[in-house]
Amino acid sequence: QVQLVESGGGLVQPGGSLRLSCVASGFTFSSAAMSWVRQAPGKGVEWISSINNFGDTTSYLTSVKGRFTISRDNSENRLYLQMNSLKPEDTAVYYCSWANFRGQGTQVTVSS
Description:
By secondary structure, the protein is an all-beta fold.
């Protein structure tokens, strides 16, 4: 079955960085476009970024463009999200996503 397992979240001060990782199984990762989404407390799920199966085409939510970078390693079935210049409004549970599947998420808290 499809499994998506995120890791790398934590507590970071404003301006700090985190790198999220997601390991995928149960489908052909190298053929799949992948995304990161997030859900802040009391809010709906928000799309952040997507990457095509080859890893050479990416797209970003305007508010994270220039601060976040999505990437992938098809040899290891891994998806990444490098997050720099983090802001308190980035606080959320972050999920990697394929089709209608999401993992359990990893909490990112940006606070001083």
